[in-house]
Structures are given as structure tokens and as C-alpha cells.
Design goal:
The complex is a heterotrimer of chains A (326), B (157) and C (491). Chain A is built from 11 helices and 10 strands. Chain A is an alpha/beta fold. Chain A has 2 domains: 165 residues, Bordetella uptake gene, domain 1 (D-Maltodextrin-Binding Protein, domain 2, 3-Layer(aba) Sandwich), CATH 3.40.190; 120 residues, 3-Layer(aba) Sandwich (D-Maltodextrin-Binding Protein, domain 2). With 157 residues, chain B is an all-alpha fold. In chain B, helix 1 runs antiparallel to helix 2. Chain C is built from 20 helices and 2 strands. Helices cover 73% and strands 1% of the residues of chain C. The relative contact order of chain C is 0.18. Chain C has one domain. Chain C starts with a helix and ends with a helix. Chain C is mainly alpha-helical. In chain C, helix 7 runs antiparallel to helix 18.
């Protein structure tokens, strides 16, 4: 049964329901200076979209902007949206694109003519580390067991994860290489999205799986999957899983997400955006969003962020070459 | 050669052509050195070969005169004027939906289609099309906050 | 009967006036977006996610569940009336449904779809209530090899839609498989048939193809005919379902429901495949197989029930294991997260009020949808009385909204119209369009599972025969192919 207070609250909301619906996400076409335009090179619902909507909410709650307008152009890990952002949004000082590590990999793997270096780095916001799991009934108890089995016969160890060349595949390749195996021999089984990959693991169809911690966390807690390692740099508070590095394999990977301004923005606009993100990062509203979504804040702004992206680009290109995708 | 000029034979040649294009494109699919027992090209080869083969079979059927269109198709000439209006509407829609926005472009499409289906009152058609487009635009797009291209009207809707 | 007690608690939540209001908003909105090709429940719920910041969790999920079920009803309406499938799971409905509508039996087709959806939705929801945990355990036994064999079985079902010439039907199928291969290959990340266009990297949306072939192609064809050819028969005879219609519909409703529900519960089942199989089954079992392709009511009743039951089935792994097996389920799970609720195997234990409220609201929403759709059937059918210049103008505009509205890419519009041109040729030369759409769905599905199975088995082809489930499904497929041939031979 519902509590009385909750019921009263829902009555009040219900009364406003019909009136509320149209205004929810339909921004007025007329713009004020304080309207932030957010470009999401992915369809609604995914990680980048959630990041954009969390940014919108936190900025509004912290009274840093009046409103935001989100545009989604999805496809191919951002390779469809990026050219549009570069060409059609050029010089717009009040626009930000949400992107992340997945786009770096997708652009390299798809040999995209448009590069991430063409847009203006503003800030890295969040990171999500990944987790290597096996089904509860698996004989492999540690990452060392798994890696030993892989080195003994790569064909017998199947790795489930997202699309080929994505962050899950990249991590599989990095582990294989760091452990002294051949990344090209990884029997990688690609699934579209975390759900089907999870089903394959729960049904004991594959040897092991890799995904963002958020997707597997609940199944690990329930004892349906056994976590062997996380890809973070150090142990995470409240998560009793060793890092990959702790187990003697020198690999660390964050699925980071950040924001970019279009090419050709004025220096003043760039500075203002960096300032806006810095202030958002310091706000309690943002901290609340990070907590609700299980994201780790790894804020890094401006030139340092630009340099970080250059390094990531080189690192990911190298590993994609190792896997055989670049 | 007369037999090859039958529309059915031309269509069969088209199917063969499509199959060949698909075959050529399949040869250009990069095969990565990644571990995979069956690579990305196997299914592509199978499907394009199948299509090409079926195209050849269709051609043989048409050649032998075993595949012909029913008289109701061939007795009446194509209504070329109607097709012309319809194509004009589609081309205008593709070209104008970006710069003018959804509503004006769709109104034009509606009017051209109505003309193709024999209506002789373009202004009335355009008015009805505009109303329909407005309902669609506000009813669905605005309610869900999907930006379907306000275009010209961006300033005042 | 602990379940019944929990369900009663759920009803106490769902029947609160406020929550009823949310359910009404949900089913209405769902019906509306279901009608629009390209705009499905997943996208709608994603766009409404910000609502989770304003209303309590129960209300939000009742709204979302209403949208989800409503979209399944809405999609069939346009399939039947305008030959324009609003959802990919209602493509098969267009085959017989639109033929019925052209003969002046639109209201009967809409009614059998609505009642069938209601029955299937209710059976499916009963399934969620009582069968969820054992069913999900069974569903997890399906590995890639088993899925591949299931797809082989589904390919046999395509024979039901091949039309008057096997040769032309197979050509349409091969064309569909090629269309389905366009885009980045999931297993190796290589682009296939993209011709260097980034817009093609994610493949072509099956709805664009279905709408192009069915709606745009049909419009082009009718325009090419002499004037007056395009007039439809308005409502003829009794608008409502006749006694004969009822007699012919009830079994397909039940069969479709029983077929669709477990398919939905499969982690990679999808709502389209059971509609193909249901159509095949109904054609084989019907006493009027010759009517198929000309407006057989069984061909609407069965697939419609299958699609709605599978929509219910999708919620099984989501609620029982926190496993999102469709785009809509994935987005609903992310909505759970914004309430700080962790969707997972423990969801039923930690949030019984929410889960049972949601399940109860599915029953309620289903009743609402029936009440909303049955009286509307007659009204909707009047759309066909619109003079053809405006009707076809409207259809083309409609097709545009869904395609351009989501992606805002003129390339998608060009594709839609090009495929419409192909649809015209197929119509003119009597190629069936349905195998193309089915090939587009089944082809890549079968291919991916085949390659997954081989990767896991280390390249052993024997895996398809040694896994019991897979062997059984393959055997069934062979039987379905061979037995009719033998029977024909003996006659």
C-alpha cells in the first residue's frame, strides 16, 4: 500500500499532469541568451543522452542557465552526429556536444573523415569503469584463472560485450595484450546493448563478459555473476572487487564522457563555457546527479582536457590496431 | 532482341544488375584479421549471389514468355502526368524541408499529391494540407519536444 | 496464493484516481505515437524521462506502461487503414488488414485487432503475474545456436507470404536480406554496403523500408493508374464483426497469444518473429487458405494477438531479472535508476509495491485500450471515406513525419522515396513486398547468431546439431518443410 503522504503528493502532481506534459521537454523556440544548446550524437536514452539531461537538470537547479534545448542525432557511435556538429553548429557560442571515449574509438574504426580534434574541448565530466565478470557457475575464480585459460586456448574462452571496437572490446584486447596473449585471437562475441550480453552470461552461454559497472552491478550483488576485476585505477569505495592492475595486469580504462564546443567559437565563449562547467561541477545538484547515476566525477577542463584527448586518441588507435580494427 | 525489350525482361536485368553491384560491394568489405570463423562477407556473398541467380532465372522466364503481366496492367497507358506531379511533390519535399521547414514543405507535397490524384483546386488542397501539417507538427512534435524542423516559421511558432 | 495478495495490493495502487489518470494519459499518448511510423514507445519514453524528476515512481511507470501497450494498438490502426505500419511488429497486420479495409471491412479488421490485442495483452499479463520466474529461467537456456535454429524455423514461415510465384517471392526475400546487411557489422566492426555514407553506418530502419514499400509504393502505383482507380470501397454491409468473423477470429487470438508471449520473454526474441510464425500457422490451419492475400480475418487476428502477447513477454525478463531485452525495456530500466531504484534480480523483493502496481496497471491499461479502440474502430474506418487526393496526400505527409522527424536527415527521406520507387516496381510486376521486410529482419538476426554460435564453439559447426534445443528446432523446421510436400505427393 502506498503511504498517505506519497498519495497526497501524487494527487497534486496528477492534477498538474495534463498541463505539465507539453512543457516537459519541449523548449520554446524563442531563445534567450541563457539558453544552452546541447547536441547529443546518440539516440535518446543512452549514456550520452543521460549525461546531457543530467547537465541540463543540474545547471537549472543551480540557477546557472534558464533553459536548455537538447538535439539528438544518433548513429554509429557518434560518427553520424559529429560531422553535423562540426559543419552546421560552427561558431555557436552557446552550444555544447556531449561525447566520450566511445566516439574516439568509433571515429578511428570507421575511418571517419571528421576528427574529434576539430571541435573545441571544454571539460571532461564523468567516468565509468568497466568490470570483467563470469557466470556464477564458472570455474574461473580470479582474473589470473581466466587469463591462463585464454593463453592455453583462446578459442575456448569467449568474451561477451558490446559492438566490436567499442569500449568492452578494447578492454578485452588490452587485457589479452598486457597478459602476453595475442589480442587478435580474442574470441569476442558482440551483442547490441548490455541486455542481450547479460542474458548470454546469465544463461552460461559464454565464458566471460565485459561491460560498464552500472550494467552488471545489480547482478553481481545478487550473486548471479561473479566479478573478477574492475578497470579503475584504484579500489572503489563500497565495491569489493580488485582492480585489474592489482592482479598483475597493467591495464586501466575509464569510459569517460565530456563536453565540447563547436569549432570556431570565440575565445570569450570558450572561457565562459569552461567557467559554466566548472561551476556546475562544484554544485551540489551535480554531485547528486553523479550519485544517482553511479558515475565517478573525473573533472578536467580546458587545455588539460585537450591534451588528455590527444593521448586517448593515440592509446585507443594503438589498441584498435592490435585487435585488428584500425 | 524484341524479347529483351519486354518490361519483365528489363526488370530481370535490373535485378541482375543489383546483384552484381552487391557482389562488387561485397568484395570491397574490409576483412579484419580479427578472430572469426565466418567473417562479415560470407552472408553478403550468399545473398548477392542468390539475388543474381534469381535475376537470371527471372530473365529466362521472361525470355520464354512464361512470365508476363496481366492485361489489366498493360492495357492502359501509364498516367505519366500524375506520376510527374507526384515526383515533383517528393523532390520538392526533399529539397525544401531543410531550408523551409516541415510545415511548408509538407503542404507543397500534399498539394502536388492531390493534383496527381485528380484534384483541380490547388489552393484549397494547399489550405487543407497546411492545416493537416500544422496538426501533425503541433500535436506530435511539440508535445514530445521533437524538433522536426520549424524552418521558416522558427521565429514565431 | 501469495501472488494474488500481492496483485490485489497492486490493484489498490493502480486504481487510485491519480494513477488511473496517468494510465489514461499513457494509453492515449501511446496510441498516438504508435500510429506514427518511426516514432515508437522507446523513443517516446526516452523523451518523457525528465518526467521522473517531477512525479512519484509509481505514476511514472504507470504512464510508461500505458505508452508501451498503447503503441502496440496504435501501430495496427495505420497498418490496416493506410497500409502504413506504425511499428515493425504490425507489418504483417497490413498484409490482410489493409486488404480487408479495401473491401470495405475496415471496421471488422480494426475490431478483431483490438479484441485480439486485448485478449493477448491480458493473457500476457497473466503470464507475467504467474509464470515469470520459471519462464525466464527457460528463456536463458537459449544460446546463439538455438536462436539460429529458431530463425531457420522462422524462414520456413516466410513461405506463407511468397505470393503467386515462388521465384518472385524469393527475389523479394533476397533483396530484403541485402538491405538488412547494410551498416556496420556488429561482430567485426566493418562497414558493409554503406557506399561511404555515414548515414548508412547504422543500417536502414526497417520501418523506413516497410513504409516505403507499402505506403509510398502503393501511392505511386495508384497514381500511375487511370483516374478513379484509386477509390476505395467505403464501409460495406455491417460495420461490426459478424458472427462468422467471431467464429474465425477466436482461435487465432488464442494461438497468437500463446505463441507470442514466450517469444517476447526470450532475451533476443523480438516482437516481429512471432507475427510471421503466427501468420504461417493461421494460413496452414485456415479452412480458407485461398483467402489469404485477399483479406483473411485470421491473418489479422493471429499476428495482432502474437505481437501484443510478445510485448507483454518482454516485461518478464525486465521485471524478473532486471534484464532489458528491448529498447523500450532498457529505457524503462534507466528510468528506475533516476529514482535511485536499482533494477536487478532483486527488484521484485525490494520494490514489490512498484512492480505489482505496474503489473496491475497493465491489466487496467489493457481494458482502457479496448474501451478506447473499439468505439473508435468505426470512426477510424471513416478515414477511408476521405477523397483519394487528400487521403494519399495525407499518407505521404504522414510517412514524412516519422522518417524525417526523428533523424532530420534528408538522406532518410531520399531513401524512403527510393524504396517507394522499388515498391512501385514490385507492385507493378507482382512481387510480394512482405518477404523483403521479413528478410530484412530475419537475415541479419540469423547471421549474427550463426557467427556468435561459431565463435563460442571455437568454429565447430556441429554445435547446431548437438545442442538439444537447436536440434529440436531444426528438426521442426525440416518437418514443416517436408510434410506438406509429402502430403501433396500422396494425393
Amino acid at each position: 500500500m502506498m503511504h498517505r503522504r506519497a498519495f497526497l503528493r501524487s494527487t497534486a502532481y496528477g492534477a498538474a499532469a495534463i498541463g505539465l506534459l507539453p512543457g516537459l521537454s519541449g523548449p520554446a523556440a524563442a531563445q534567450t541568451v541563457d539558453t544552452l544548446k546541447l547536441f547529443v550524437p546518440a539516440n535518446p536514452g543512452g549514456g550520452w543522452d543521460q549525461t546531457a539531461r543530467s547537465i541540463e537538470l543540474a545547471l537549472k537547479q543551480a540557477n546557472l542557465i534558464k533553459g536548455a534545448q537538447v538535439t539528438n542525432v544518433g548513429g554509429a557511435g557518434g560518427a553520424v552526429g559529429l560531422p553535423q556538429f562540426v559543419n552546421q553548429w560552427k561558431g555557436q557560442g552557446n552550444a555544447l556536444m556531449v561525447a566520450g571515449m566511445v566516439m574516439v574509438g568509433a571515429l578511428i574504426a570507421n575511418k571517419s573523415p571528421v576528427k574529434l580534434s576539430q571541435v573545441t574541448p571544454i571539460a571532461r565530466l564523468t567516468g565509468e569503469f568497466q568490470v570483467v565478470v563470469v557466470p556464477a557457475a564458472s570455474p574461473h575464480k580470479t582474473l589470473a584463472d581466466l587469463v591462463a585459460a585464454f593463453k592455453a586456448d583462446p578459442a575456448k574462452v569467449s568474451w561477451a560485450g558490446g559492438s566490436a571496437g567499442g569500449s568492452d572490446h578494447i578492454l578485452a584486447g588490452m587485457i589479452a595484450k598486457a597478459a602476453g596473449g595475442d589480442p587478435k585471437k580474442v574470441s569476442y562475441v558482440a551483442y547490441s546493448g548490455g541486455g542481450p550480453a547479460l542474458a548470454a552470461l546469465l544463461g552460461n552461454q559464454v565464458t566471460c563478459g565485459i561491460s560498464g559497472f552500472g550494467e552488471f552491478g545489480e547482478q553481481i550483488k545478487a550473486g548471479k555473476l561473479r566479478a573478477l576485476a574492475i578497470s579503475a585505477d584504484k579500489r572503489q569505495a563500497g565495491i569489493d572487487i580488485p582492480t585489474i592492475r592489482e592482479q598483475g595486469i597493467d591495464v586501466e580504462l575509464f569510459n569517460w564522457r565530456g563536453v565540447f564546443a563547436p569549432p570556431g567559437v570565440k575565445d570569450a565563449d570558450r572561457a565562459a563555457m569552461i567557467d559554466l562547467m566548472t561551476r556546475m561541477n562544484a554544485s551540489p545538484a551535480w554531485a547528486e546527479q553523479l550519485k544517482a547515476r553511479d558515475w565517478t566525477g573525473i573533472f578536467l577542463a580546458g587545455d588539460a582536457y585537450g591534451k588528455y584527448i590527444e593521448q586517448e586518441n593515440a592509446r585507443i588507435e594503438a589498441i584498435l590496431k592490435d585487435i585488428g580494427l584500425a | 532482341m524484341q524479347r529483351l525489350r519486354r518490361p519483365e525482361a528489363l526488370l530481370a536485368l535490373g535485378v541482375i544488375g543489383l546483384g552484381c553491384v552487391a557482389l562488387y560491394e561485397t568484395t570491397r568489405i574490409p576483412v579484419s584479421p580479427m578472430y572469426a570463423r565466418v567473417g562479415p562477407t560470407a552472408m553478403a556473398y550468399a545473398a548477392s549471389l542468390l539475388l543474381t541467380g534469381l535475376g537470371v532465372a527471372l530473365l529466362v522466364e521472361a525470355w520464354r514468355g512464361r512470365w508476363t503481366s496481366p492485361p489489366e496492367e498493360t492495357a492502359t497507358p501509364l498516367n505519366l502526368r500524375a506520376i510527374g506531379w507526384l515526383l515533383l511533390g517528393l523532390v520538392l519535399n526533399i529539397g525544401l524541408i531543410g531550408p523551409l521547414g516541415f510545415m511548408p514543405a509538407s503542404t507543397l507535397l500534399f498539394a502536388c499529391t492531390a493534383r496527381a490524384f485528380g484534384s483541380r483546386r490547388p489552393l484549397r488542397d494547399a489550405a487543407i494540407g497546411a492545416i493537416f501539417a500544422a496538426i501533425a507538427y503541433f500535436g506530435f512534435a511539440q508535445l514530445l519536444g521533437i524538433n522536426i524542423g520549424a524552418g521558416l516559421l522558427a521565429g514565431w511558432v | 496464493m501469495e501472488t494474488l495478495g500481492l496483485l490485489a495490493d497492486g490493484f489498490a495502487v493502480a486504481l487510485q484516481p491519480v494513477n488511473l489518470l496517468w494510465a489514461i494519459v499513457g494509453v492515449t499518448l501511446g496510441t498516438a505515437v504508435g500510429v506514427l511510423p518511426g516514432l515508437g514507445p522507446a523513443l517516446t519514453i526516452a523523451l518523457l524521462l525528465p518526467i521522473t524528476f517531477h512525479v512519484p515512481a509509481t505514476a511514472a511507470f504507470i504512464l510508461f506502461a500505458g505508452i508501451y501497450y498503447g503503441a502496440m494498438y496504435g501501430g495496427s490502426t495505420t497498418s490496416i487503414l493506410l497500409n502504413t505500419p506504425g511499428e515493425s511488429a504490425t507489418i504483417i497486420t497490413a498484409l490482410e488488414g489493409h486488404k480487408m479495409a479495401r473491401k470495405g471491412r475496415a471496421a471488422a479488421a480494426l475490431a478483431t485487432a483490438a479484441i485480439g490485442s486485448f485478449i493477448a495483452g491480458t493473457i500476457g499479463t497473466l503470464g507475467i503475474t504467474f509464470l515469470a520466474p520459471p519462464l525466464v529461467e527457460l528463456a536463458l537456456q537459449f544460446g546463439p545456436a538455438d536462436y539460429f535454429s529458431l530463425m531457420v524455423l522462422a524462414f520456413v514461415a516466410v513461405s506463407a507470404v511468397l505470393g503467386s510465384s515462388v521465384l518472385r517471392g524469393l527475389t523479394a526475400l533476397a533483396f530484403g536480406i541485402l538491405l538488412g546487411l547494410i551498416g556496420i557489422d556488429l561482430q567485426t566492426g566493418q562497414p558493409r554496403f554503406t557506399f561511404g555514407l555515414p548515414e548508412l553506418l547504422d543500417g536502414i530502419n526497417v520501418i523506413v523500408v516497410a513504409v516505403g514499400l507499402f505506403a509510398v509504393g502503393e501511392t505511386l502505383y495508384l497514381a500511375s493508374r487511370p483516374l478513379g482507380h484509386a477509390t476505395l470501397t467505403p464501409l460495406k454491409g455491417r460495420a461490426w464483426m459478424t458472427r462468422e468473423d467471431w467464429r474465425r477470429s477466436w482461435k487465432p487470438w488464442l494461438r497468437g497469444s500463446v505463441l507470442g508471449f514466450p517469444f517476447g520473454a526470450l532475451p533476443a526474441g523480438g516482437a516481429e518473429v512471432p507475427t510471421f510464425i503466427s501468420y504461417f500457422v493461421e494460413k496452414k490451419l485456415s479452412r480458407h487458405p485461398e483467402e489469404f492475400g485477399h483479406g483473411a480475418i485470421e491473418g489479422v487476428a493471429g499476428p495482432e494477438a502474437a505481437n501484443n502477447a510478445s510485448a507483454a513477454g518482454v516485461l518478464v525478463p525486465m521485471l524478473a531479472l532486471g534484464l532489458p531485452t528491448s529498447a523500450t525495456a532498457a529505457i524503462m530500466l534507466s528510468a528506475f535508476q533516476s529514482y535511485g531504484i536499482n533494477p536487478g534480480p532483486l527488484l521484485l523483493q525490494t520494490q514489490p509495491e512498484l512492480v505489482w502496481g505496474l503489473i496491475a496497471s497493465l491489466y487496467v491499461g489493457n481494458v482502457m485500450l479496448l474501451v478506447l479502440n473499439l468505439p473508435l474502430a468505426g470512426l477510424w474506418a471513416k478515414i477511408l471515406a476521405i477523397p483519394s487526393p487528400w487521403l494519399y496526400g495525407g499518407i505521404l505527409m504522414f510517412a514524412t513525419i516519422g522518417t524525417y522527424g526523428i533523424s532530420q536527415s534528408p538522406i532518410d527521406l531520399i531513401l524512403l522515396y527510393l524504396i517507394g520507387g522499388v515498391g512501385y516496381l514490385m507492385r507493378r510486376f507482382d512481387f510480394p513486398a512482405a518477404p523483403t521486410v521479413i528478410g530484412m529482419i530475419l537475415g541479419p538476426f540469423a547471421e549474427q547468431e550463426f557467427r556468435r554460435a561459431l565463435t563460442i564453439s571455437g568454429g565447430e559447426f556441429s554445435v547446431f546439431a548437438t545442442r538439444p534445443l537447436s536440434a529440436m528446432l531444426l528438426g521442426l523446421a525440416v518437418l514443416l518443410l517436408v510434410v506438406p510436400l509429402l502430403l501433396r505427393h500422396r494425393r
